[in-house]
Structure formats: structure tokens, C-alpha cells
Amino acid sequence: MNEISAPRPNNLDAFWMPFTDNKYFKANPRLLYRAEGMSYFTPEGREVLDGTAGLWCCNAGHGRREITEAIQKQAALMDFAPTFNLGHPIAFEAAARVAEMTPDGIDRVFFTNSGSESADTALKIALAYHKARRESSRVRLVGRERGYHGVGFGGITVGGIGPNRKQFGALLPYADHLPHTHLPAKNAFSRGQPEHGAELADALEAIVALHGAETIAAVMVEPVAGSTGVLVPPLGYLQRLRELCTRHGILLIFDEVITGFGRLGTNFGSERLGVTPDIITMAKGLTNAAVPMGAVATSQTVYDTIVDGVAGGIELFHGYTYSGHPLASAAAVATLELHRAEDLPGRARAIEPYWQDAIHSLKDRPNVIDTRDFGLIGGIELAPRPGKPGTRAMDIFRRCFDAGVLVRVTGDIVALSPPLIVERPHVDRLIGTLADAITAEAA
């Protein structure tokens, strides 16, 4: 007979933390207890200004009553219902709300639970699309160096961040990568989109020449690469990539997990950048991170090709137990209503010039070798310490937290992405604290 053992005392041992130096953290914990508005609070009650919207996701700020009440109401009404051969109204409403925000023609929505699941789902949809068109030879997936598309095998395969791949050996076959777009010799300290680098998209022609267009299913890129350290697309780059994909019959997938839902001052980054892909992945800001949820939006052409390609029965053998989860759907509906009612993209556009000036004010701080920005995103690149890459930025992260400000670091780059409700005093405090930390870690 199984017995329930006595509860263990609350400690740090059981939780294997993601993307974390577990040994260091558990010897030197930094804990968050509650959140409200622009800030977190530690268990001791100390405020920590959120300069990262959690993990690029709490775009409407923390503790929004409208989202909390929507989740509570739905949980009392129905906690869970499957969406395999059944449905529930709130999932359809959530999909319709997403479709209202996506670019024209990108309005068929498949729900997932995270950005990682969205990436793998988009890649599978791309493969299914070509198979439905009787082009089964199109199996090759193209990503980009320094790209991040979550941690599923598909996303890691097309992703291009070395540490995310090196522990796991061979990933999926039939993949290739475009070069990244970071050209510091030409574009350092660019304001907004850098001028140089559109020609880097032409590397797709070399991949086509090597493998044949008839073998390539999709190209997946982030409009703005975030997790690798804020790489902003050069002027004309995405337009050129769109042109080449269209010419060769390749689907273009935009990973908008970060750039979706107002981060660039528009509903989706594709709108700000003037390029419409065939498929968009999203997550994070979809529910303001109150409940995990992701989605993939496709063109009607992609949807119809797959659905009409099957005479009857299930058209796409793919899905998740929690696709369109009632609580997540309720959170999404409430979140998207907040975006509309408070015009969060408009707020981001209004403060963007002030934000841009603040980011570039760090140019002359010790060891700063580049500053870059786009929308409400900022990246500050630091010269690494000799023989100790990443330690300077990590020490700055810890120093900022102890001074009451949360930033994010990747390698020796500090990445900033505050909630879209940020105001000028928040920007001043965030950048001022970061400036002091950079100076303090000059050695």
C-alpha cells in the first residue's frame, strides 16, 4: 500500500531550475514573492523594478485585475475541457481575438502552451503543407545563426545558439542555417534598424543552390532576435528574405514570441517591419504570462491546403492536451482586451524616442562596445573579461538586482524589455541603476 509521506520542509533542493547555475543560485538565492504594476517584491518586501517584463512576457504589467478575474471566473465555470473532437466557447473566442490582431490573411490559429511548442508546431505545419501539395521532397528546414526558437528538438535544430545545442548531440536531420545579421564593424551603436546587412539574406540563394529549392520547406527567423542579445534586422533584410522565399516556394515563418503583442509598437513585429510571413509563432504576451499559452497563426492558404488535402477525418495529426485550455483562453481574451482598451502598442510607440535616447546614453560607460534598440527593446553589449566570458554581465545582473532593478543577460549582453506600461521615471531609474552597475564592474 502506498503511503503519503510527511511534507518536506520548504527548501531549494527539489526544484531543478531552468537555464540557471543551480549550484550558485542555491548557495546565493534571489527570490521573488509577489508582483504588481512595474515591480516585483522579494519575500522581505523589497521592491525590484522589472526591466524585462518577466521574461519578455508581462507586457501589460503585473497583477492585472482584469486578467486575474477572468481566470477565476473561468476556473469556477469549467476548469478543463478537451479540444480533441470537442470544443468550448472561450477557445474559439480567444482564437478570433488573436486573428483580429495578426496581419491580414494570417488568421487561422492553432493553440499551444509555449513558444517552444509553437516553433515545433509551425515546422510540422510547414512540412504537412508541402506534403499536401504533393511536394514531399521539401523536408529541409532553414534557421539562422544565433536564432532562438525554444527548446524543442525542432526549435533547437533551426535555432543557432551554440550552448543550447552542444549537450544534445545530433538533432533533426535536413537543416541548414543563414548567417546572423550582427555586423558590429559597420553597425555599432545603431539607432533602430541598422543600415548595413540586407545582402545577408542572399545566403538563402546559396542554400538553394546547394540543396535545391525543391528540398526546402521553410525558413524560420525572429524579426528581432532577442535571446541571443538583441539583434535588430538591417534595413531591407526581411524584405529580401520574403522575396527569396516567395520566388522559391519556401514558407517564411516569423517567430514573434518576443515581438508579438506590442513590443515593437505594433500588434506584431511584421506590421512594424512591413513584411508578412506565411506563419507566425507567438506566446509570452498572449496571456501576459498569467497562464502558459502559445499559438501559431497561418495564412488561409496554408490552412486550406492541409485541411482540403484530406478527403475526410483528421487533417493534421498534431496537438496538445492543453491546446486552447479554458483558463489560458480566458486569460488571452482578457489580455487582448487590455491591449485594445489601453492601446499598449501605442504607449510603446509614444515612449520609444525617450527609451532610445536612454539606451544610447550608456555608450560611454566603461567596457560598453555597442548599444542597440528597436521598439521597447534595448541591448547593451560589453567587452568580456579576458578568459572569463559572461562573468561581467552576470555580475552586473546581480548588482542591479541587489540595487532594486531586474535586467536580463545573455553572454556579455544586457537585454532590456520593460512592460509596455513603462513611464519616464521608470526608464530613468532602470538606466541609472544599470549605468552605475556597469561602472562598478569596470574591472
Structure description:
The protein contains 16 helices and 15 strands. With 443 residues, it is of the alpha/beta class. The protein has 2 domains: 140 residues, Alpha-Beta Complex (Aspartate Aminotransferase, domain 1), CATH 3.90.1150.10; 276 residues, Aspartate Aminotransferase, domain 2 (3-Layer(aba) Sandwich). The strands form 3 sheets. It has a 7-stranded mixed β-sheet, sandwiched between helices. It has a 4-stranded mixed β-sheet with strand order 1-2-3-13. The mean pLDDT is 96. Keywords: Aminotransferase, Pyridoxal phosphate, Transferase.
In short:
The protein is of the alpha/beta class. The protein has 16 helices and 15 strands.
What order do the helices and strands come in, and which of them pair?
Blueprint: H1 22-27, E1 34-36, E2 39-41, E3 47-50, H2 53-56, H3 65-77, H4 89-101, E4 106-112, H5 115-132, E5 140-144, H6 153-158, H7 162-165, E6 175-178, H8 184-187, H9 203-211, E7 216-221, H10 237-248, E8 251-255, H11 269-273, E9 279-282, E10 294-299, H12 300-308, H13 326-342, H14 344-360, E11 368-374, E12 377-382, H15 391-402, E13 405-406, E14 408-410, E15 413-416, H16 424-440
Parallel strand pairs: 3-13, 5-6, 5-7, 7-8, 8-9
Antiparallel strand pairs: 1-2, 2-3, 4-10, 9-10, 11-12, 12-15, 14-15
Helix pairs in contact: 3-13, 4-13, 5-12, 13-14, 14-16, 15-16
Q: Given the helix and strand composition, which structural class is it?
A: alpha/beta
Mean pLDDT: 96
Which strands sit side by side, in order, in the main sheet?
A: 4-10-9-8-7-5-6
Cα shape: globular
Radius of gyration: 22 Å
What is the terminal separation in angstroms? 61 Å
* CATH level-3 fold name of the largest domain: Aspartate Aminotransferase, domain 2
The CATH homologous superfamily of the largest domain is called: Type I PLP-dependent aspartate aminotransferase-like (Major domain)
CATH class of the largest domain: Alpha Beta
Largest sheet: 7 strands, mixed
Compute the number of strand runs: 15
